[in-house]
Amino acid sequence: VTSPRRRREFGANLRSLFGWRRPADDVAEELRFHAEMRARDGQPQPARASGVVAECAAIAAGADRATRRGQWLEEAWHDLRHAGRALRARPGVALGSILIIGLGLGANTAIVGLVNAVYFQPLPIDPDGRLVRIREYRVGSDGSRWQADIGRRSFDAVTAAPDLVSDAVLLGATSLNLVIDDVAERIPAVRTSAGFTRVLRTAPVLGRAFTPDEEQAGEDSGALLISQRLWDRAFGRAPDVVGRHVKAEARAFTIVGVMPTGFDFPYAAEAWLPGRFAPNERSLAIFGHLAPGLTLPVANERFEAIGRRLNEQNPDNAGLGLNAVSARQSLVGDDGQMAIALMGSVAMLLLIACANVTMLITSRLVSRQQEVVIRAALGCGRGRQVRHFITETLLLFALGGVAGWALAVLLKDSLVVLLPRTFVDELGMRSVPLDLRVAAVAMAVAMAAGLAFGLVAALRATRGDINAMIKDGSRSVTGGRSRRTVSALVVVEIALALVLVAGAGLLIQNAYRISRRDPGFRIDGLFTFQLDFRGARYAAGAARTSLLDDVIGRLQEAPGVEAVGMTTVNPFCCGDWGARISVEGQPAPSPQATPVVGHQLVTPGWFAAMGIALRDGRVFTARDREGQAPVAIVDEGFARRFWPGQSAIGKRVKRGQYDSTEPWMTVVGVVAPIEADGDYPEAWYLPYAQWPLGPSAEDAHLMVRSTGNPAMLLPAVRRAVAEVDATMPVFEPTTMAQLGRDRHAQDRIGATVTGTLAALGLVLATIGVYGLMSAAVSGDTRNIGIRLALGASSRRVLGQVLARAIRLAATGAIVGVPLALLAARLLRAVITDVEAPNLTLLAGVTLLLLAAAAIAALIPARRAVRIDPLRALRE
Amino acid sequence: MARDHELLHGALEALILRTLSDRSDHGYGISRRIRDATGGAVEVEDGSLYPALYRLERKALIRGEWGTSDARRRARFYHLTPKGRRRLGTQTAQWAAFADGVSRLLLGRKS
Fold it and tell me: What predicted TM-score, i.e. pTM, was given to this entire model?
């Protein structure tokens, strides 16, 4: 009815707002016309009344708009005060609502903060988002890509194209056996090419970066940058640390600077030194800035082209492709999955919370029908009434938002466990940052939810014929309708709760399955620690094997030790190692197709210490040393892949390409497969004593099987190592059980968090059912009374109430199960190893919800039975 | 007519609405027609007329639009909106009741 006028007014307001038309001009023109006409008609001109123009103009526009705006503000303020009073009038309901909203919004804020930190907040090393990690990759036999560590050659090729990569740095992981106050400590360190602080957008907070001379001289310069953590731990934050000399690997270093807090990049490094990289050096990392204007896909085409060229030019680059991923993606890896999965969970929890609060509000609105009627009778239009209720809901959600923010602040430190490991270890993140962006999103979510659900509630409450209401004087005119809305809300709640519980169920099942998975060796009772053979002292193979023989010999004598072994690659930690291999009689059709298998160098006692089952042949013995015939042990997967249906014993394998100069090695044993990082489907083991300088041979992971508590072995281990070499640090002592738990911490924590969210969702949905059934019973007192008076048994009445609740829950389940299946598909797309939901899980979850609904309905049902028919009828 | 604004407000607005119910007109035309129709008894001053017109327009009882007068001059023409027509009905009835009451009191007439 009013729309043309509204449009016109809007247009006029808009025009006058921009000064296109001033009402005063109109009035003046009109009055001029009036005077002219009067003159034409020969009428006398009266004295011009002053202020007419201004008065009219004010009426036409200014005063009008100001009045309306003033009125709007006044009404808003009035609504707000009224809302405040209404909340105070029922503090229990208000507080409950605020807590429920706060819970929902708090969980959302925290997870939004998490996702923001993982995916959106600029990284300290990459403020403008142009940093990429350039990697070499290999295509596996099944078409999957293996990321391989990159070589020096690729760095040279990439930096030769400044229009592709404007600035790049080459990084090599190493470690230093640092001697401070005569105590040797092994610290992770990184060798860097020139300009690493510039490329990684950082600078020492104390001292200086490397000079060009130092960068030129490489390791020989003796320059060392240290991390805050090392400065703190080893030097007590002494301000004169710059210029101090320290010894590592029998070499002298001078500390030239201290890096800023939180910069432990990459590899959780505690020290950085200039590096001189050999032309064919591998196992490095390249980070570089894309040249301005280049997008990653375009850049990647050029990286691929460079990779193909390197392939042709260098035989040892055969089969390797070159590409780049954003620095963020390389840091996040697969660790962002859980944050995404949790987003879904918290969003559903919020919806359930909102549905619950809407129910609370609607129930209040229904009982406040009198108020609506009176206000309507006093000329309060529907729009005004709706606004009034929405103000109340918005106030509620604003307060809930504040409560939610407080909850998120409480959670932000503990949520660190859900951040990718690299963010914690390499970027020094110690809590989930809640920045302005998170606050804005949280606020927007709160207001949007408040507006949407407030509108639903308000439209419900003010709907219906006011006159009928007045005439009736009854409070149930919109009761039936409103209850239908509430029923719908409860059904939605149950459906969402079902999805939440089913999703959590999947993740819990997943975590349980992982924890129960047979790793192929006995985890319990295994103690492990590391030794590092980098440095001049252990440059010779004989020095390494003799130290290992001595240490293992001593440890075997120690009380409580059952078996001792050593491997160069711990299956549960510290990186995996793949080797390119060739099988005699089965040359790969192309260099690219050369198989890659999991690789470890082990001592003879390792298989026994781990408890790995021998399937065929023998394990290594002390006779498998350098100078003896080279031998290998393969796992069952390896044997099946290359010699299906045959015995692997006596077959021959070698490292690298088929025509490489590496010696053929005879397979002497087949062992059961074990679970290991890197997920190579096949693995081989070579005797360490034959390859003390081979790939991975600098790292020694000792495994000590104990008869008692493995954690108690540390003093004995330290003693044994110190007796052989007092300067050899023992580092990262732990148990395999602990490492196993750490590996799947995200799965476990994710399951716990979603489980908690699901439990909360279930509780809220149950409260929803309770609230609805309570309202239904108290609104139906009369009918129940009549039925009881007419002789209905109380069991029957009880059954009817319960049946209604269960019907509601069943409807929710019917809606929820397809949603749960859909959610499970999304979950499986995000988290790789989650299984499809099975019937048992879905049936169990449905039963759980039905039971919860029945329990929730029990209290109102019993109240219904106790209704006194006489009193009910008199009402 | 007296310059009693209290009384005038309602009456003047009713007069304007009544005048416009015959046909649209500009401010000058309205004032002239009111004068003629009341036999010169009511003379509307500019200082009252235009604020009243703008008030009526704000209440959406009349609508003003720029057009061209007989004298080929740009003039603002006012016409009655449907709402204004309805208002004229109620105001006429109210006025009749009011005038009747006043007459009864002042003239002692019985009806």
Answer: 0.68
Of A40, A49, A59, which is closest to B46 when you measure between CB atoms? A49
Tens-digit pLDDT profile for residues A857-867: 888 888 877 87
- Quote the pLDDT of residue A71: 66
| Cα separation, A199 vs A126, whole angstroms | 9
- In b/e form, how buried is each residue of B60-88, taking b as 16+ CB within 10 angstroms? bbbbbeeeebeeeeebbbbebbebbeebb
């298989």: which residue's tokens? A607
Do residues A798 and A862 touch, judged by C-beta distance below 8 A? yes
With cut-offs at 50, 70 and 90, classify the pLDDT of residue B1: very low
List, for residues A530-563, the tens digit of each pLDDT value: 998 877 788 899 999 999 999 999 999 988 899 9
| Contact across the interface for B46 and A52, Cβ inside 8 Å | yes
Question: Mean pLDDT, to the nearest integer, of A419-429?
Answer: 85
Contact B27 A36 (CB under 8 A): no
Q: At B23, phi and psi to the nearest 5?
A: -165, 160
- Burial pattern B20-39, b for ≥16 Cβ within 10 A else e, equals beeebbbbbbbbbbbeeeee
Euclidean distance between CA atoms A599 and A581, whole angstroms: 10
pLDDT computed for residue A608 by the predictor = 94
CB contact under 8 A, B45 and A49: yes
Structure-token match 């619950």, residue found: A356
pLDDT at A47 over 50: yes
Dihedral angle, C-alpha B33, B34, B35, B38, nearest 10 °: 120
% of chain A residues with pLDDT over 70:
88
Per-residue model confidence (pLDDT) at position A364: 62
Residue labelled with tokens 């944050």: A339
Measured between beta carbons, the chain A residues lying within 8 angstroms of B53 are 56
Nearest beta carbon to residue B60 from set A5, A46, A55 = A5
User: Which residues does A637 contact at the CB level (< 8 Å), separation at least 6?
Assistant: A673, A681, A682, A683
The answer to whether A414 touches A475, Cβ cutoff 8 Å, is no
Judge whether A805 and A769 are in contact, CB under 8 Å: yes
Q: What is the dihedral of CA A413, A415, A420, A425, to 10 degrees?
A: 20
Query: What six digits make up the tokens of A858?
Result: 């029990």
How close does chain B come to A379, measured CA to CA in Å? 18
How many angstroms separate the CA atoms of A758 and A498, rounded?
8
Tokens standing for residue B85? 């027509």
ipTM of the complex: 0.84
Number of A to B CB contacts under 8 A, please give it.
Answer: 56
A483-489 long-range contacts, CB within 8 A, separation 24+: A483/A772, A483/A775, A483/A776, A483/A779, A485/A362, A485/A456, A485/A460, A486/A359, A486/A362, A486/A363, A486/A771, A486/A772, A486/A775, A487/A772, A487/A808, A489/A355, A489/A358, A489/A359, A489/A362, A489/A768
Specify which residues A139 forms β-bridges with.
Answer: A145
* SS3 of chain B: helix, strand, coil, percent, to 5: 60, 15, 25
Identify whether the C-beta of residue A688 lies closer than 8 Å to the C-beta of residue A618.
no
Q: How far apart are CA B80 and CA B60, in angstroms?
A: 9
3-state DSSP of A532-590: ECCCHHHCCHHHHHHHHHHHHHHHHHCCCEEEEEEECCCCCCCCCCEEEEEECCECCCC
- Minimal Cβ distance to A59: which of B46, B58, B73: B58
The dihedral over CA atoms of B7, B11, B16, B20, expressed in degrees to the nearest 10, equals 170
Average pLDDT of the segment spanning A261-281: 87
Q: Name chain B contacts of A52, Cβ cutoff 8 Å.
A: 46-47, 50-51
Question: Quick one: DSSP state of residue A683?
Answer: E
- Tell me how far apart the alpha carbons of residues A863 and A680 are, in angstroms, rounded to a whole number: 63
Residues of chain B found within 8 Å of residue A26, distances taken between Cβ atoms: 76
Nearest-CA residue of chain B relative to A5?
B60
